[in-house]
Recover the amino acids of this structure.
């Protein structure tokens, strides 16, 4: 199977959930970066990093993981729907496109 | 067929290649167009701030 390396910003519940699907590593080595909070210092750090500015990193909302687990086929969930944007952008974008997909299940970030 | 930005199947896309993949897409849905535009504007602003700070600190 394809090796997946995961990183979840901050210590939230998804660390454990993710354990089955791949190896949890530090943020530098991870293929997938998840966070449930754009205001968390770890997430902020990523959103201000050179990698982010130069389009080498995207943070996804941890809800992707729960959605994938709940979906009948794991590959039915589109990763692209779970982009976690910098906190300062979220309000502006929400005004244009409505709520983010993860906001239906959790309280606003 | 869904547009590339909304396609499922997580193994081909990840945090490392997502942004560049999105930018190279010829066709994006409205949602992703808006997201991409705002994100690029954010990055432009931040880059400018970093450059400005560097110049300021050089004189201090």
């Amino acid at each position: 199977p394809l090796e997946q390396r995961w990183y979840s910003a901050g210590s939230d519940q998804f660390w454990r959930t993710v354990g089955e699907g791949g190896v949890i590593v530090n943020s530098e080595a991870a293929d997938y970066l998840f966070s449930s909070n754009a205001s968390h210092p770890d997430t902020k750090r990523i959103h201000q990093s050179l990698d982010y500015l130069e389009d080498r990193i995207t943070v996804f909302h941890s809800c992707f993981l729960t959605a994938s687990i709940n979906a009948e086929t794991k590959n039915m969930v589109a990763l692209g729907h779970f982009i976690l944007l910098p906190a300062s952008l979220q309000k502006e974008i929400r005004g244009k496109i409505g709520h983010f997909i993860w906001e239906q299940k959790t309280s606003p970030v | 067929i869904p547009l590339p930005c909304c396609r499922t199947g997580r193994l081909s896309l990840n945090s490392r290649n997502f942004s560049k993949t999105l930018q190279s897409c010829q066709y994006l849905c409205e949602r992703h167009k808006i997201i991409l535009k705002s994100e690029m504007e954010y990055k432009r602003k931040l880059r400018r701030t970093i450059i400005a700070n560097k110049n300021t600190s050089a004189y201090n």
Summary: The helical segments of chain A are 14-18, 41-47, 50-53, 63-70, 87-97. The longest helix of chain A spans residues 87-97. The first strand of chain A starts at residue 5 and ends at 8.
